[in-house]
């Protein structure tokens, strides 16, 4: 096909060239009324023809216009000879005029004999245009000879380009390659020099015809797509998106004034108006289909379990979602989108079970609702999750509801859910994230001075830059301004803890829990430092004090059980583990620790009971299995 196209174009150009030879503009001009001795001879004439600097035999618009000058040949006619005297004395009288402008001619070289006549090549500046008639003027006798010349359009400058682009456009149109046709027509319209051709005015209309055909074709296919029930929703969304792009192209470019004239402007404006309407409909269809598809995709999450036993896929996605939305930067309530961070093992699990699309679609739906200032989660999501919450090992409902309540500025409701997380969660990472949310709510409600918050931020920044002295100064200044603001003391405690000064760190952690008796994260840091040094007595005092403050939380009981177990008070340890398991019986660690304490008290049957509970929760848990095995071996000895 490529060779055929090239041959076609060559034929067009060749036929144009041959046509131009039949129409080489030539005139006959009288240059003398009389001739010969005493003027007794007859008049003399010359034939003047358009030419090139090389006197090419075949003229084209390209070789005629290639140089900065126009060229003509002058041939003697009527039996006389162009000689040197004519060149020197007569040629200077020859002028070319057009619309009041006169241009002189110059000989390029001497006359050359060709057949029965002599031919002289002349040139002149391009002070006139070939697409308009011009006149050769020569004084003869008492008057002047004026002979006009008209050049056929095949020799006008740009004819080759105009013809090729027009041919390309028509060929593209006939082959339904409409955008290619548009490109060719618009290249013509962009070139102001091509306005000289009579057909130029028709190009704008031809261009508009292509746009109208594009519109009709796209509209028809769009309607066919809508009515085709065999096309899947996801594919329809992609097709609708493609139609939006196509209609937008028409509406954005069809009425470009650069390509319009008085005959096409109204039609282009009308086409744009029609296209804008159907483009808006395409957007509506795409969005409607996308919402329907998203709703279908996240149905697993929104509607939850439909049977008594929860689906493991539902469980995995909800757990990831809970970790995701507990990771938000809660301080940035004006963010354009909600950016989440989740542990890699959770996303790896989703990928393993083909759930990433469900999870990512849910995130996108939430972000769309966020941008529209709607409640974060899809309608029905929290209600259904609350129905299923007893089937989860962790309080994911409370985690997610507390986050939405916070963004709705329903702080009272958020704090109720946060307390439920503290009460039942055995996953310290999740608990710490929600504890940060609780602290932020307290900060907002207590109107903590902005200067205090700024000092803490400056302290964080100094730590990141390795300037601990400046960080300490900033944190201490924050404490001086607001002595009871627990996060300032906690930040200072963490700094000392990271630098190995546990004693000073513990003093500031203690200050934090004194200022904020529910400060879970500060309790945990204190517990960790005491545990590392096997200081069980201060651990017991700290956690007992926390319970006295009303922190009837899983982790407080669990850590207190470890402290009692470490000090060989196994009966008290068991009390704490059993209370922790009353709050959340799904904890593998609490069941194992309770079993160990019963084993230490030689209550082997009770120990076995708790080890088996841990194995039921997770049959692959090696710690529980190994403890049960050791218990079997121990009992064999007695």
Question: Could you explain the architecture of this structure?
Answer:
It is a single chain. The chain has helices at residues 2-22, 61-64, 84-90, 159-174, 178-190, 200-227, 233-253, 265-297, 299-302, 312-325, 344-352, 356-371, 381-388, 396-407, 411-424, 428-445, 450-464, 468-481, 486-498, 502-515, 520-532, 536-548, 554-566, 570-583, 588-600, 604-617, 622-636; strands spanning 26-32, 44-51, 69-77, 95-98, 101-104, 106-107, 112-114, 117-125, 134-140, 143-149. It is an alpha+beta fold. The chain has 4 domains: 2-154, Immunoglobulin-like (Sandwich), CATH 2.60.40; 159-296; 299-438, no CATH class; 534-638, Tetratricopeptide repeat domain (Serine Threonine Protein Phosphatase 5, Tetratricopeptide repeat). A hairpin with a 2-residue loop joins strand 9 (134-140) and strand 10. Helix 23 (554-566) runs parallel beside helix 25 (588-600) and helix 24 (570-583) packs antiparallel against helix 25 (588-600). The chain starts with a helix and ends with a helix.
